[in-house]
Amino acid sequence: MNPAAPDRYGVVGNPVAHSKSPLIHALFAEQTHERLTYERVLAPLSGFRETVAAFMAQGGKGLNVTLPFKLEAHALATQTTERARVAGAVNTLRFDAGVILGDNTDGAGLMADLERLGHLHGFAMQDARVLLLGAGGAARGVLGPLLDSAPTLVAIANRDQAKARALAHVYLGPASKLRALGLDDLEDERFDVILNATSAGHQGATLGLPGALVKAASLIYDLAYGEGPAESSTPFLRAARAQGATLTSDGLGMLVEQAALSFFLWRGILPQSQPVLLELRKALSPS
Ligand code: NAP
């Protein structure tokens, strides 16, 4: 292998064509003067392990992992960080002398973005009642850090309620802070913060949340993102605003924050996220 070649990284998923991670990491590399390449890696739905093995065999140094492979990435890692172990899901792999290290930067990325929004709009997660929609890889990654932010309650609501219960079970302890619900159980519930960690929007599906639930929330946050302004770039956020939500945000800030933490794991340098977020938002704004 050419020793002068830049280190190779990428994002593996299915689908992966939509991923903005290559742009983010190119901007981080430019900002920090690190020499690296970063590409999209499409894995067949039943071929995650083989795809990662091939990337490693070609000298790859690390991968971000996106849906639907975060649980498989956890199983593949030969070592995990504490937060990835607790989450049971991995969004960052680092390959180093035969060791496959798995980390999960989703939760810390979300909390960093919620903190930014809290400063801007004057709210805190402390003592908040939080509704987490979804119980997949992203929900697993964010639940621990969410509980660490001292909310009054976190309720997990999932289409498959058994998965919500299983996820809540992982964090049982001070169990009074956690509840598991189905998506049909939300009519009489009220929350301060609603976080959408489902992939419903990717399939063009809507969640149909009760209007009163949406209206009562101080913040509605979609982990997904799309083209246009932060407050209305996804179908979920547009539906929430049509139902009377006032403070809404997509997950582009989280995407940049979790990427910065992955970059740190790989390169030992924490890039500045805010200039990259501005640049990315510009790139996603229809001219
Ligand atoms: P995942 O592991 O595939 O989980 C998907 C979740 O969505 C499951 O809870 C699933 O419920 C639910 N779901 C799917 N279709 C649905 C529908 N039609 N109605 C209701 N619920 C539905 O995916 P993931 O990795 O957790 O990703 C979830 C979302 O978070 C995606 O939009 C992803 O882009 C986003 N995300 C963003 C960031 C960021 O940095 N901004 C990071 C990670 C993830 P069932 O269990 O019932 O199937």
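^ NAP complex. The two ends are 43 Å apart (CA to CA). The chain has a mean pLDDT of 95.
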